[in-house]
Amino acid sequence: MVARSRNRIVKSRPGPQGAQEIPCESCPLRQMETFRKFTKEELAFISNFKIGEMTVQAGSTIFLEGHNSPHLFTVLDGWAMRFKILQDGNRQVFNFAFRGDLLGLQSALFDKMLHSVEALTDMRLCVFPRERIWELYHEQSNLAYDMTWMAAREESILAQHLAAVGQMPALGRIAYLIVFLLHQVRRGGRGNESVISAPITQEHIGDAMGLSLVHTNKTIRKLQAMGCIEWQRQVLRVLDEKRLIELSGYDRQEREERPFL
Amino acid sequence: MVARSRNRIVKSRPGPQGAQEIPCESCPLRQMETFRKFTKEELAFISNFKIGEMTVQAGSTIFLEGHNSPHLFTVLDGWAMRFKILQDGNRQVFNFAFRGDLLGLQSALFDKMLHSVEALTDMRLCVFPRERIWELYHEQSNLAYDMTWMAAREESILAQHLAAVGQMPALGRIAYLIVFLLHQVRRGGRGNESVISAPITQEHIGDAMGLSLVHTNKTIRKLQAMGCIEWQRQVLRVLDEKRLIELSGYDRQEREERPFL
DNA sequence: CGTTACCTTGAATCTCCTCAATACACGTGG
DNA sequence: CCACGTGTATTGAGGAGATTCAAGGTAACG
Lengths: 261, 261
Hints:
- The structure is a homodimer.
- The first copy, chain A, contains eight helices and twelve strands.
- The first copy, chain A, has about 260 residues and is an alpha+beta fold.
- In chain A, helix 5 (about 170-185) crosses helix 6 (about 200-210), helix 5 (about 170-185) packs across helix 7 and helix 5 packs across helix 8.
- The two termini of chain A are about 30 Å apart.
- Residues about 1-5 and about 10-20 of chain A have low confidence and may be disordered.
- Chains A and B meet through strand 6, helix 2, helix 3, helix 4 and helix 6 of A and strand 6, helix 2, helix 3, helix 4 and helix 6 of B.
- The structure holds a DNA duplex (30 and 30 nucleotides).
């Protein structure tokens, strides 16, 4: 359950080890379209709020359901998965986290994670101290607003997933998830990608969309036969996005792309 | 789609019409366990933030997907439903709202609702002006924190529903929803209720848990035959909560019951 | 007293699940 | 270098669970 724990936190700002650490001022996340421009003051606050970076290996458990953590993370690089194991042993995958996503807000707010988070690839995380989140609320109301925005964004994504899982047949569900992931990738990239390159297995997809592994496989093969996608280990190429969107009834949740931390 | 629009906003604080309006100081919601105690200052802020009360009739649309609203509401009394109609005409019910719940945060944050909200009963709502939400973030950081808390709470509820819909068979899903609703009712009541008295139809339940109406009915009848519940129009009596919890793998999400607005 | 909304039940059908077996890529140790 | 184990993908067969269609039934309302 708990994975090989070789995680490493690089602490201290300009110290000897901090050599490779990226200063917030030139954080690559700030280039993402979805992030708003920060004021100098905000940037200074965040620089100070950040206590270091952490690298974790693929397969590591970042948060464990029912436990908490003194940290709050932002994903600088890599993929993670939020999920929960139910009593019958089934796993529900809630969402995948990616560059720019925030991890562990629940732990900060509820004092306890209600789901687990696991790294799918090696990851680089930006680390914030959970107990100082109050300072953020007291001193930086714009950032506080952004926190709420992020939480509401996750909520709306889960609602979207719920609608797909609850109301669509297998073909539509999988088409939906592929389009969703593609849009996620674009959010973190140049915006015109047609390839999802991530260590997501068919089992992950099935667990996210409430389908058995076997049925997931058959459905993916059908999408392939229809010429919508190409699937190779770790690489999913979208060939006919329009068709996938039709199949999924996907409705791009156009949130005014309010920025963030 | 848009319902009979006979909603009525009672404006102005102590004015002639404001006679029945409840002052925040004695707001009954404050008695709820889940609400923390406010400081005088917070209470004053909220009193001032509140611009009135609104009553809506059963069946009214409170928010319409894709649109926004200048208001943000708190439910003083009655039941509502958050849902979305998909392209194929299916309806996904996301959640039911109840005493103490906040409505319309998405509209305030994203400038556009991503789902609709409809009143199931006649309702009484407390009205706040959306554009002044900034003041809350700037002046009352504790309340700002509470906003994030509420958003994260909704997120965790949706995750729970998603796990039920994605991973459980019909019997477990419906058992889950019943237990969930019962706990909601207790949160707004004395804490030992065993009856859910709400105008929730079997169709609502089916639409919430991704089941057809027919199958929902058959499953409810099965739960009745098992002696777990009694179902009469508008009144659902829980006879064997323990059994329902087993069936549903329900895991009471014990959030440290942080208070709120 | 007819209309409407909701609940109920049976039958036929189909989607999706489980079981079972195979195939392929990869890394490890002999 | 090959044998083996592990993780992932693939495919077929049989059956359980859920859907749709169809036809009532019952309570509330004007």
